[in-house]
Amino acid sequence: xxxxxxxxxxxxxxxxxxxxxxxxxxxxxxxxxxxxxxxxxxxxxxxxxxxxxxxxxxxxxxxxxxxxxxxxxxxxxxxxxxxxxxxxxxxxxxxxxxxxxxxxxxxxxxxxxxxxxxxxxxxxxxxxxxxxxxxxxxxxxxxxxxxxxxxxxxxxxxxxxxxxxxxxxxxxxxxxxxxxxxxxxxxxxxxxxxxxxxxxxxxxxxxxxxxxxxxxxxxxxxxxxxxxxxxxxxxxxxxxxxxxxxxxxxxxxxxxxxxxxxxxxxxxxxxxxxxxxxxxxxxxxxxxxxxxxxxxxxxxxxxxxxxxxxxxxxxxxxxxxxxxxxxxxxxxxxxxxxxxxxxxxxxxxxxxxxxxxxxxxxxxxxxxxxxxxxxxxxxxxxxxxxxxxxxxxxxxxxxxxxxxxxxxxxxxxxxxxxxxxxxxxxxxx
Length: 429
Ligand code: GDP
Ligand code: IMO
Ligand code: MG
Fold this sequence. Notes:
The chain folds into 3 domains: 4-100 and 199-260, Adenylosuccinate Synthetase, Chain A, domain 1 (3-Layer(aba) Sandwich), CATH 3.40.440.10; 108-196, Adenylosuccinate Synthetase, subunit A, domain 2, CATH 1.10.300; 265-428, Adenylosuccinate Synthetase, Chain A, domain 3, CATH 3.90.170.10. It is 31% helix and 19% strand. The chain contains 12 helices and 18 strands. The chain has helices at residues 16-24, 75-87, 108-121, 133-141, 158-174, 182-197, 203-212, 246-249, 284-292, 311-320, 360-365, 391-404; strands at 4-8, 29-32, 41-45, 48-52, 64-67, 97-100, 200-201, 217-220, 260-266, 269-271, 305-307, 309-310, 325-329, 339-348, 351-353, 367-374, 408-412, 420-422. A hairpin with a 7-residue loop joins strand 17 and strand 18. The site of guanosine-5'-diphosphate has 22 residues, from helix 1 and strand 3.
């Protein structure tokens, strides 16, 4: 098994970016396979902070970075992210960066629709990132999308624009909005096309070559399993499949290439946006987790909701995504708690559940059953070996892996790249 697939096992923001960056130096290519610039991944290297949304987290270490066909790509957001990173000293060229030519585009009309729908939904809104992700995926599945390869054929785009705009104009009329300004859109596409086309290629072919050469490929998931459009807390989910299986379809490599599935798991739970969250805390403990964990969204700056570790959802995510081992992150945020709690099951209408039921009303109504453990007063921040961890922190980690029925491969103890404990090397498995 030479390859590794990294996915989030909760509601996103588990620390995927940090772990992908840490693993990237051992990989020959890093591939994003779903989502878009709704993702926000923070890397900290020797105190320098890099925030990525669309670019694969391997770009900072100079590893070949690829945006696969499963991603929805906002070309303007990409351009500003590339410029921002170049200003931070990261080099990005067609040597180390490629975009799938069959990747669908996020256009301004998608962002408009995302915003209009959320505003109209009032308190029933999803709490999306407002990036146009859902509407762009709808157009992909509806066979109306404009794709990266279309940027090389803008003179013959009219029939596609007819179909796309007919759909959007009807929706916009329902929101009292004017039709799409087609000539302005075409002009904007003409301007951005050379920038995108520099990197566009059939990446499945490039990956085939990389694979044949025996290179190690790292697949980088965005969001988390509980935000998966099939397996998540529907309808409070994102519009892509976030599970490990998507690494194959979203990159153009077969399922026999995805290798070790590394689930990234935060030592407690957070969620940003609306939707059920059984272990959410509205008390001082929740506030402490948020403050110590700096739980604010990278993309929208929104405050993340915080709660105790929920072993039920992580066990479910690990099963659904075929997780081989987990990286347990932000253990240091639990330092100093007198006691820590783990949710081991749910109670619903007098019945005990060992899984999260599918119905939205049931998901909102389940009550967590907690197990309490003694906390630790020593600091784990910056620990780089088991020997640096206090006994109660080790007990907590062991209990987590027991309850989720999946072994721990890595432990992360600060935002810094090297503050990481390696238990089992995913690339050597
Ligand atoms: P991602 O979306 O999964 O990549 O995660 P985010 O980057 O959105 O959020 C994780 C946040 O936690 C970032 O600010 C990271 O710098 C930070 N982080 C990652 N691992 C650790 C850790 O072990 N300890 C602490 N204290 N922070 C961490
Ligand atoms: P990373 O990769 C956390 C959430 C949004 C909202 C829902 C739908 O950083 O872990 P969307 O804009 O995708 O239609 O929003 O999904 N969401 C995330 N939450 N981390 C993310 O990405 C997220 N990407 C989307 O907050 O609830
Ligand atoms: Mg994030």
